[in-house]
Amino acid sequence: MFQLRDVTCQFGRKLAVNNVSLTIPEGQMVGVIGRSGAGKSTLLRMLNRLAKSTSGSIRYGDIDVTALRGAGLRAWQRDCAMIFQQFNLVPRLDVLTNVLLGRLNERSTVMNVLGLFSREERIEAIAALERLGIEQVALQPAGTLSGGQQQRVAIARALMQRPKVLLADEPIASLDPLNAKIVMDALRDINEREGITVIVNLHTLDTARTYCQRIVGMAEGRVVFDGAAEHLDGQAVATIYGTEQAIDETMTSTALPERQAALARPATPSASLQPLVLAGL
Ligand SMILES: Nc1ncnc2c1ncn2[C@@H]1O[C@H](COP(=O)(O)OP(=O)(O)OP(=O)(O)O)[C@@H](O)[C@H]1O
């Protein structure tokens, strides 16, 4: 489990995250919400050490995350995968290679320099793509895919890391509601089936309510709400978003009419061997 004690991150005079203490048991799906600038991204980035805390302690089980360096830090960043709003794929490389890049940290430098991936690694990458319903695009350049497809590739790449924790920094902020639903369903499925802890920053309140067992609300760097979705009442929302006015949650809704929702369900993975053949297996 994660244990954060009095964690602070300061940029110059700006306190991006201010004295945050949280305990996150393994296997939870946690939504972090708050206004722009509340400190959500900085909090997530400190968890996998893309950002360094200024003070306080972050532990994951026996690991003192804040003290990690070198090989220990690389191992942690493999265990703690992250996906981003802008997908961060290599657009000119094909989808399969992008997914295989999730394995780079575990391989020898020679294998990496030669760009060699084993048959087992390729099969695992195809299986990850199948699970997300996009195995048919395995050999297309990643940059030619739609945003929703690209985010699914990013999730497949994260799965290749065999992570213990999946951090998602506004993964649906650039997607339309249909693709947002596909991506959030995939994150929920990974959380439920593998028991991987998922911590996801969200702008849309109703998405947090629908998908997250636990919601953490941030305002000006501090945690101002921490509880179950059903306890997120009007007063809590006003504290998080700093407004007395009721927020119209349907404005940013990811809820879909039933017909569109049916379209959003990933197709059953095809029994066809075509992607494997295409991938040279
Ligand atoms: N590298 C940085 N250097 C200076 N200031 C930063 C840096 N990163 C974040 N900040 C500042 O810290 C505060 C928190 O930023 P952060 O990106 O964590 O907020 P956020 O809640 O994720 O916002 P958004 O929803 O817009 O992404 C903001 O005021 C931001 O300008």
TrEMBL record:
It comes from the Bacteria. Residues 2-245 form the ABC transporter domain. SMART domains: AAA. InterPro entries: AAA+_ATPase, ABC_transporter-like_ATP-bd, ABC_transporter-like_CS, ABC_transpr_PhnC, MetN_ABC_transporter-like, P-loop_NTPase. One of its GO terms (molecular function) is ATP binding. Keywords: ATP-binding, Cell membrane, Membrane, Nucleotide-binding, Translocase, Transport. One of its GO terms (cellular component) is membrane. The keyword Cell membrane applies. Belongs to the ABC transporter superfamily. This is Phosphonate transport system ATP-binding protein. It comes from Gellertiella hungarica.
